[in-house]
Specification:
With 932 residues, the protein is an alpha/beta fold. It is built from 23 helices and 19 strands.
Length: 932
């Protein structure tokens, strides 16, 4: 028979027990129950007290230690009064010129110099102590006293010789003696006053302390008389001065002690010294692990909490925490100590404070300011954070579950995937200080919407630029900071164009990174690079301001390319497209499949031939494509885009090829599935291999639009066919405009990191055309050109662009400061289309978002790149396409030829042939250069 010897051990239960003086040193007491227990004098040094419950427990020192500490406190009171009296005696002796030396070896002199020096030193000590604190007073007294002695010694030595130096020497000796007695009086008196908070029956013990002080003076006078000395301080008129100085010093010591009781930071060293003394023999938690421990309503007087592991430890309503020793923890800050006890921080400032691991569950922090505070691993569960300022706060791993966050400011706060944002109660937030940039702009967040929107931006740093961005400087700064900190994953995630010229660049960093440090280093490095670049421009261009502006627009050296286009003849063959295939993929997904309707439109038949089918469920296609896309976007070249949705490192070319092969195989099986075969057979039966036919994939699903449809084996058999994309919606045919020559509007956008001049040279050589170039234009300049009454046939953009992950919107970087959306050009583009705009070419990255937005304006044809495109690939595609198109090929044939010619670059830039795609209004077909 087998016996199971493993037993589940319940956490120990010590609730309500007398544990005075017990030792639990180094023990594992996870989850132990110490509620209402008497733990005075107990030793929990280096114990594991995770999740332990100390609510209503009583910490402190045992009775015998209490007696010892009271006796010590009485001794301090006696020493304080005695020291103050001795200081008064020295002052009176110095001022009223004692006939006998007070100390052996100190000359007695009949002059006022010693008294002057003593009074200067004590006055400096008194005033500085009140204004700056005890430590600053020690330094000031030493410095100013020393300077006084040097200055008077120099002056009197030169004027009176040796006798003058003797005067100053006597004053220095007496000032030193008075200063030492004053320091002792102030320190011992302050500690004795502060000790009253540790003592039982403080009123009774206070009377005893006063009595001890009186006895100390009596003893001092008796000692003087017994030594047969007759000090001047004991007779008139010096006695009032001695008494006055004594009283002033006693009042100063009382003041310091009072400020210590109020936790005045000017006297923190004295408070720490007093706590160190009066926690001797107290309950010790030194270096214990108190993660998630509960000390609510516990009495913690004389407890030793030095260097504890304090993560989400609950001190709500704990008693006398200010009398515990808390060195090496966040509780050493009085503001934080008060906050963890009261849980009330309404309208209070915690700017730059360390609140790492703090437990503020359920706290009321309305209107509090946590700017640049570290609140990582803290818990605010259920807290009220309405109108709270969290600008630049570190909130890594912080628990914000069920907090009330309406109207809080989240400018550049730092969170990660361990930050808990579940069930947050929030109507809206502000993304900038002073209640600027409300989000959402109107209305309120729907239930769960805040979590969905903000959880996805974990592990990012936001860089805000108010006067435009020098992209060359930013890229260099990112690389420099990456190298300095040995970080491989520092990449630009997204770029947002805000109102008033603000640009926000979000940089992805690893989870463990010190985001505040990296943010500061990136800002500093960026500013340094700006200075270097400006200096380089100034040197290269010898102060020619006009050329400096050109250099700023084109900061990357432009390489000459070979002659691109030969002049074409004036005669072009007539382009004729007799058939059109439209495959409409209806509502569905990769898990359930997609319904498909096929239309074959032909000039030979008045009505299109229609047939239906289905693409079966195939979730592997989406998964494999997303993996390929992630690896592709992590290649180490910078093309006409410089940010990534995901960051992947340490991949091999073989991995990229593997997923590409798997995707091609999976896509081929999908399109040759039994459910889709009826459509495939009908298409083949209605086509001949020599026919030039567009195949339009009409769908609103962004994942379907991103697929490499050209890999379908259908296009291997029908070499004159070419794929195009179209959104599902209204088919609108545009009116035609006749012009003497083709008009091309070309926008050369921000050129940092790319060679847009190469695109310019290609476009300049187009035959029978008028090309207008706008180099990094302003928004108003572009808007004005689009409204040109002569109209345009082709719109071409070369530069940087990007699209949202869901393809809903796209943006293009018009110049160094303007990140432009299609929505901003809605009326201007609509007018341009009405005036005959036929084709838009976006020779830039990630353009599906741009195409999807333009499709709503019913532009006839668009050419975009589906993914980030290397600069050389973009240039070669434009050259190949325009050469074929201007040479007489149809739009579809020209795109296919140009795409297939990119195969020659795929040894250097893999999968270049997967990038370009036509996106069109399905009512528009048959475009050629001559028909423009």
């Amino acid at each position: 028979m087998l016996h199971n010897n493993h037993r589940i051990t319940k956490p120990p239960n010590f609730s309500s027990q007398n544990l005075k003086g017990r030792s639990f040193k180094g023990q594992n007491l996870t989850g132990a129950d110490f509620r209402y227990a008497d733990i005075r004098g107990a030793d929990f040094t280096q114990a594991n007290l995770r999740n332990a419950n100390f609510s209503n427990a009583k910490a402190g020192v045992e009775s015998h230690w209490v007696i010892i500490l009271i006796v010590f406190s009485l001794f301090l009171s006696t020493l304080c009064v005695f020291s103050a009296w001795m200081t008064g005696v020295i002052v009176a002796e110095s001022v009223f010129q004692s006939s006998q030396p007070l100390y052996e070896g100190v000359p007695s002199i009949d002059n006022s110099i010693p008294g002057l020096i003593v009074l200067i030193v004590l006055t400096v000590f008194y005033i500085t102590t009140i204004r700056k604190g005890f430590v600053a007073a020690l330094l000031a007294m030493t410095g100013i006293g020393g300077a006084t002695v040097v200055i008077l010694g120099t002056l009197l030595g030169l004027s009176l010789g040796a006798s003058g130096l003797k005067m100053v020497g006597a004053g220095a000796w007496r000032a030193a003696a008075a200063g030492i007695w004053a320091i002792v009086a102030s320190l011992t008196g302050a500690i004795a006053v502060f000790a009253s908070s540790f003592e039982p029956l403080p009123q009774v013990i206070g009377v005893l302390k006063v009595s001890a002080g009186i006895i100390a003076i009596a003893i001092a006078i008796t000692v003087f008389k017994a030594s047969d000395s007759e000090p001047t301080a004991l007779v008139m008129p010096a006695l009032p001065m001695a008494v006055t100085v004594t009283i002033i010093l006693l009042l100063l010591s009382f003041y310091i002690g009072w400020r210590c009781l109020l936790a005045d930071t000017k006297f923190t060293p004295i408070q720490n010294m007093a706590r160190a003394i009066f926690t001797i023999g107290g309950t010790s938690f030194h270096r214990a692990d108190l993660t998630n421990a509960d000390f609510s309503q516990a009495s913690l007087k004389s407890a030793d909490l030095r260097n504890i592991k304090l993560i989400r430890t609950n001190f709500h309503l704990a008693k006398k925490l200010q009398l515990a020793r808390v060195d090496g923890t966040i509780l050493s800050n009085p503001k934080i100590r008060d906050l963890v006890v009261s849980h009330r921080g309404i309208n209070k400032s915690y700017i730059g404070c360390n609140l790492k691991g703090v437990n503020l569950a359920g706290a009321d922090l309305s209107d509090a300011d946590f700017t640049a505070a570290d609140i990582s691993n803290a818990t605010f569960a259920g807290a009220i954070l309405e109108r709270t300022n969290l600008t630049q706060s570190q909130a890594l791993g912080t628990n914000f579950q069920q907090v009330y966050l309406t109207a809080a400011c989240l400018e550049n706060w730092h969170i990660n995937d361990k930050t808990q944002l579940d069930n947050i109660n929030c109507d809206y937030v502000y993304l900038k200080n002073n209640q600027l940039e409300r989000h959402p702009l109107s209305g309120v967040f729907a239930t769960g919407e805040f979590t969905k929107l903000y959880q996805v931006i974990a592990d990012t740093i936001e860089l805000i630029f108010r006067n435009g961005v020098d992209w060359e400087a930013l890229i260099i700064a990112i690389k420099e900071v990456s190298a300095t900190n040995h970080i491989e994953t520092l990449t630009i995630k997204s770029i947002e164009n805000k109102d008033d010229g603000f640009i926000v660049v979000k940089v992805r960093v690893c989870e463990e990174a010190d985001k505040a440090k990296l943010h500061q280093e990136l800002q500093q490095s960026y500013q340094q690079q700006l200075k270097i670049i400006e200096a380089r421009y100034q040197g290269e261009l010898q102060g020619k301001q006009a050329q400096i502006e050109i250099h700023r627009q084109h900061s990357v050296e432009m390489a000459e390319i070979a002659k691109l286009l030969a002049q074409q003849g004036l005669k072009h063959p007539q382009i004729q497209i007799n058939k059109l295939i439209i495959l409409t993929l209806g509502d569905g997904n990769f898990n359930d499949g997609f319904p498909v309707t096929a239309l074959v439109c032909s000039d030979e038949h008045p009505l299109p031939i229609a047939f239906t089918g289905k693409l079966p469920p195939e979730p592997n296609i989406l998964q494999i494509y997303q993996q390929w896309r992630q690896l592709y976007r992590s290649q180490k070249w910078f093309g006409r885009i410089t940010f990534e949705e995901e960051s992947v490192t340490n991949f091999s070319q073989q991995e990229l090829s593997y997923y590409a092969g798997q995707l091609e195989k999976c896509l081929d099986n999908w399109l040759n599935s039994q459910q889709f075969q009826p459509i495939a057979r009908e298409l083949r039966s209605n086509l001949t291999k020599s026919e030039k036919v567009p195949v339009i994939i009409q769908t609103k699903d962004i994942h379907l639009q991103r697929l490499p449809w050209h890999l379908w084996d259908f296009f291997q058999h029908y070499r004159q066919a070419e794929i195009a994309l179209s959104a599902i919606g209204e088919r609108t045919r545009k009116s035609k405009f006749t012009r003497n020559q083709i008009r091309v509007l070309t926008i050369l956008g921000n050129s940092i990191g790319i060679d847009v001049e190469a695109d310019r040279k290609i476009l300049e050589q187009l035959p029978n055309s008028e090309t207008v170039f706008l180099v990094e234009p302003t928004f108003q300049e572009l808007h004005q050109q689009l409204w040109d009454e002569q109209g345009w046939d082709i719109f071409c953009f070369s530069g940087h662009s990007s699209s949202q992950a869901d393809g809903s919107t796209g943006k293009m970087l018009l110049n160094q400061t303007k990140l432009l959306t299609i929505k901003e050009l809605k009326y201007a583009l609509t007018k341009a289309i009405e005036h005959g705009l036929q084709l838009a070419i976006f020779n830039s990255c990630d353009g599906l978002g741009l195409a999807r937005e333009l499709a709503d304006l019913h532009i006839p044809q668009m050419i975009v790149m589906k993914e980030p495109v290397p600069d050389k690939v973009a240039q070669e595609f434009l050259k190949y396409f325009l050469t074929a198109f201007a040479g007489g090929e149809s739009l579809y044939t020209a795109v296919r030829q140009a795409r297939e010619r990119l195969e020659g670059l795929e040894d250097e830039f893999p999968y270049a042939t997967w990038l370009p795609v036509l996106f069109q209004n399905s009512a528009e077909v048959g475009m050629s250069w001559r028909k423009l």
